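Dear colleague,

Thank you for sharing your sequence with our group. We've completed the structure prediction you requested, and as agreed, I am returning the results in plain text so they can be pasted directly into your records. Please verify that the sequence below matches your submission; if there's any discrepancy, let me know and we will rerun it promptly.
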Amino acid sequence: MPHHGENPPVENYDGLPTGEIKHRIKALSPPELDKLLHYEHTHADRPAVTRLIESRRKELRTTDATPTPGGEAPRPGGATPKGTSPVTPDTSPEPFSAPPHGTPHQSGQPKSNRH
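Please find the predicted structure tokens below.
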């Protein structure tokens, strides 16, 4: 049964896909992972997410691993809007025309001249 008023240590946690959760939990300490695991069990209780959290907890407790930066929420405006390109005129290559056949030094031949 969900406990109301409880907040997970990850911003917007309930709306995150599993792949994003995997990235975001890298910045959590073992006590924060314990809190998140409890939250997951009492709310959605997703097996794949539970395994991710337990695996990260074990990694931090049994190795010299430490929480790593990069678990923050994506910054607004940092993502490229859907249907647009992050390429700007400054980052795009010079325009060129590819040769119609072969290489620039070796012209192609029409099919009728092949033997």
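Summary note from our side: Residues 23-62 form one domain.

Kind regards,
the structure core
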